[in-house]
Amino acid sequence: MSVEVRVPTLGESVTEATVATWFKKPGDRVEADEMLCELETDKVTVEVPSPASGVLAEIVAKEGDTVGVDALLAVVDEAAGAAAKPAAPAPAAAAKSAPEPAAKEDARMVDVMVPALGESVTEATVATWFKKQGEAVSADEILCELETDKVSVEVPAPASGVLAEILAPEGATVAAGGKLAVIAAGEGAAAAPAPAAQAEASAAQAAASGAKDVEDAPSARKLMAEAGLTRDQVQGSGRDGRVMKEDVQRAIAAAASAPAQAPAPSATPRPPVAASDAAREERVRMTRLRQTIARRLKDAQNTAAMLTTYNEADMSAIMELRNAYKDQFEKKHGVKLGFMSFFVKACVHALKEVPEVNAEIDGQDIVYKNYYHMGVAVGTPTGLVVPVVRDADQLSFAQIEKKIAELGRRARDGKLSMAEMQGGTFTISNGGVYGSLMSSPILNPPQSGILGMHKIQDRPVAVNGQVVIRPMMYLALSYDHRIVDGKGAVTFLVRVKEALEDPRRLLMDL
Fold it and tell me: Which of 399, 403, 480, 473 is nearest to 447 (CA)?
């Protein structure tokens, strides 16, 4: 029976495509869902799978042809495939004549793609490959780790088999939806490493000799000519490094934005270093996360009219409360009663009274947020991240402690999702866990306020005319003076201080 291969739906408002590459020739055996060809639209590249197993009987639309949606591309003959199959299991003679090709026919190539990276994130850097080319992999086994400017993303194997080819080595920048590697899956997977190794050697040899055997997409060649770009200036994301139209568009955009994105030269260039000292230095490229942290913090300083106000809180009441109920609290809720839940509750209480600290500037407008998503800064081996406790005003002390513990653990393991770090309205940063006695936190844009917690230290203070020793903590509120006046900032910090020194006020909403 003949099965037609037709052009799939190409996306909203896209009515036609160009046949870019056929991966099979007429007469080749194909498996169901095996990629037959690649179509190129003005927006994306679309791979067309085989609708059935059999033999590719006819190719109707050749490479370079323009085809509409649902147009006939090819015909697969299921009967021919079924007729060819019985000949394979012939006992000794057939096995002797060609055992390897039969195994290879059973193998199918599965692409390992860059997963969705999150809202507004379009590219990532390949940080680490946990498998080498030619190694066996299991379905869902982690193959590599990608690093974006916000989170690390683990990429699992989509199928069991052999890692036949790594297309994006460590350090490479890849786009969302780009191809990372190819897995040879199925019974013939064991035969995949040898051809993969040969292909790798051939590719290396071709690269060394400057050969360009891969034909780029017609639209890409045209756009490169119009933009005055050479083939070496564009990194191809298509099959075997084939340059697609979107690759050229990215190269043009990168060239246009390069001057704006280039880091400003430092005011004081690094002075010359003695050769003996240089030999003992180590130069390491900043990770994407660290670059983003640096850029955002500097942007906050350059954009906001940042000011910091200070106060101190007597932590005696909270510490007595914790000591009295910590065992019962942990037994009932399965989590320890820490300080962060008190600070989150105290900040929510103060934000309700001083709403401008919970607002942000958007152009000529002030956006007041009638919800309380508290960002909690967490230090990780790769840098500072700020997961968000959403609707903190609706959570109990136990729910807040559980959420913070979970987010902190996921942050340190690099498992945070983009959604878990977006949408915060106010941030709390606890430098006290590292022993900081006093600091001025930098705003987390576009937020207008951030509270800095510090080390609890016994200090002499005057209480009712007497000098006593109390566990004291310095508090620091950095705020955007464009939207928050001094009165509002001081009022906010005083309300936080009052709530911490008398936690009963939180229960009474005072």
Answer: 480
CA dihedral 210→165→44→147, nearest 10 degrees, is: -100
| Domain endpoint, select from 35, 57, 86 | 86
Cα(359)–Cα(425) distance, rounded to whole angstroms?
A: 7
**Beta carbons of 134 and 162 less than 8 angstroms apart:** yes
2 Cβ contact partners less than 8 Å away, ≥ 6 residues apart: 57, 75, 76, 77, 78, 79
Residue 251 shares a structural domain with residue 297? no
3-state secondary structure labels for all residues of 224-235? HHHHCCCHHHCC
- Is residue 309 domain-shared with residue 442, that is, in the same domain? yes
Question: What confidence tier does 278 reach under pLDDT thresholds 50, 70, 90?
Answer: confident
Domain count, the chain: 3
pLDDT tens digit sequence for 26-56: 888 888 888 888 888 766 677 888 888 888 8
pLDDT in tens, 343-370: 999 999 999 999 999 999 888 889 999 9
Give the CATH number, domain containing residue 244.
4.10.320.10
Q: Please check whether residue 310 lies inside any domain of the structure.
A: yes
- What residues does 309 pair with on adjacent strands? 477
CATH number at residue 328: 3.30.559.10
Q: Which two tokens stand for residue 309?
A: 């106000």
Asked if residue 82 lies in contact with residue 54, where contact means CB atoms within 8 angstroms, the answer is yes
Which residues form the catalytic set? 481, 485
Which neighbouring-strand residues pair with 72?
6
Residues 366 and 489 in one domain: yes
Angstrom distance (rounded) from CA 316 to CA 336: 18
Sequential DSSP letters for 197-245: HHHHHHHHHHHHHT---SPPPHHHHHHHHHHT--GGGS---SGGG---H
* Tokens 């060809």 found at: 37
